[in-house]
Amino acid sequence: MADRQRDRADSGILKDLGDGLILRRARREDAVAVAEFNARIHFSSGGPFEQREPHRGIAAGTRDLMSGDHPTCDASDFIVVEDTRTSSVVSSTCLIPQRFSYEGVEFDAGLPELVGTHPDYRRRGLVREQFEVLHRWSRERGHLMQAIGGIPYYYRLFGYEMAVAMGNGHRMYVSDVPDERSGPDGGEGSSRSYRLRPAAASDARFLADLDRRRRGRYLLTAARDEPLWRYEVAKRDPESDESLRVWIVEYATGEPAGYVCHLREYRGGSMQVEGYDLADGVSWLEATPFVLRELAEVGNKRASSGEKTASLTFVLGERHPLYEVVPEPPLYELDRRDHYSFYVRVPDLPGFLRHVAPVLERRLAASVAAGYTGELGLSFYGSGLRLVLERGRLNRVEDWSPTVEERGDAAFPDLTFLQLLFGYRSLEELDRAFADCSPGEGDARVVLKALFPRRPSDLWPVC
Fold this sequence. Notes:
By secondary structure, this protein is an alpha+beta fold.
């Protein structure tokens, strides 16, 4: 028995699922098989599985993650379910380590990705088996939360709640891009000249510094440090769905002034801009018309090859300086069908709140509840939390269960408290959205509003 367990561990087998199926950790030599599997599972449908047209961008992205060149992920971060009778991959997923920030307080997190199962093997609990392993890996690595973008409702089955905005943005039609004689508001343009040049690996520090500045505008963000930018610019496969074309915005003198990046693949005739930021002291009003014209020109060059670019889609979060610089119209907010939400999971809520206590205390100090002393019982009906505050400091956070006699100061059904924690909805919005939400009264309500205000996030995880 001991020899068999040792052999299984050496082979990476995590569990025998029966009926010829094993769940195991992936290896580098699995990269081709897993990439081919994912290329037929994701963004590909219709007809027998083996005859589907593989999605080249998904295949390239999978190979990138498993190659050993990615800054945070490797083949060992993938799980495969293998049918030993055919030696084929029938289900797979992975965990991509992240570094998140909650208003400046950083922590490690995990991003489950590329979750998929062969159509003939669905409804057997294979994804649940894999998520149990992913969550264990996350816990062992000290991840305080997980986030995933996925199909509606599904990840609620594994303890996730939609609580962070995803895909918010605005669109401008290329025909509305201002010409050289006018700024974004139709006024006189600036005499200063800017241009775009392709980013190089040597720009990684500049890009990381700008990204750090960007994160200060939001509640929840993912850090993109120097190694990640260097990978993005110089090592990622250009065919990958995640591949970005990164440009440095610079003065005519060659001095860097900012950056803008967009997906290489154009979707629905639109260039999708994923990032745009300028250095301290650079005028958004002055530089933005140049950036818009340069992006439109990049799109026009693509159009000359037969693929017309009709619009620029700026997926830059709920708030961004661009939205203030360019009026609506010609900048149009994406409608509800064009944006979505991240699912998030916080397995140790008291531990998470203790970790971000400096943020909560700073918010309280800036409110009418500064210096507050008291306790808050937050009911989740089946469970809950007790927050103990002493002169404005979060003295203690602990698990607590409501009773008939002690129902607590506020109540949030299921996992809806996560929407409040991550600024996705305000206390009043939660109260209106859920009939069984109780936002509290008196001092408790004032303190809760101070601790958990509505705030935008821009979660741009590294894939």
